[in-house]
Recover the amino acids of this structure.
């Protein structure tokens, strides 16, 4: 059992919510070992989220199901299991890209990921628009040709009656 098994993330908190209020709301579900409300370093004001750690992970799962979507200090809160710092999914690229190396140390330079290198993306950006250009040109010529055919048939009908 990990020490973070009973740790819950609580989001959507009011800026006026204190740790005592948060502990009072969650203490119904079990024994709480720690309550943290994350604050801004400069203003010392709540950032709107916090963590509640239960001594028993089963109590944490009970609190998770019961408190998610409830109102606390006039705001609807979101409760979820607190994940480890590296378990987030999604793209988090940086200047050195996905390889973790420096900028010019070989390997992938950008955060593009996969088998495609920065050179592939450069070529794609340069040549990728060209097929589209041909489609636009063809459509333009089709429209001109249709207009010319209509014009010709209109003139022919007019000349026929003269």
């Amino acid at each position: 059992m990990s020490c973070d098994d009973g740790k819950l993330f609580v989001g959507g908190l009011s800026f006026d919510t204190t740790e005592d209020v948060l502990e009072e709301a969650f203490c119904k579900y079990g024994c709480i070992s720690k309550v943290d409300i994350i604050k801004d370093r400069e203003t010392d004001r709540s950032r709107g989220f916090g963590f509640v750690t239960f001594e028993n992970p089963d109590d944490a799962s009970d609190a998770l199901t019961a408190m998610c979507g409830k109102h606390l200090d006039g705001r609807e809160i979101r409760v979820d299991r607190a994940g480890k710092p590296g378990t987030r999914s999604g793209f988090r690229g940086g200047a050195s890209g996905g390889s973790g190396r420096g900028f010019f140390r070989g390997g992938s330079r950008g955060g593009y990921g996969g088998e495609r290198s920065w050179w592939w993306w450069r070529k794609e950006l340069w040549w990728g628009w060209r097929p589209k250009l041909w489609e636009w040109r063809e459509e333009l010529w089709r429209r001109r040709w249709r207009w010319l055919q209509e014009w010709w048939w209109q003139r022919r009908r007019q000349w026929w009656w003269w």
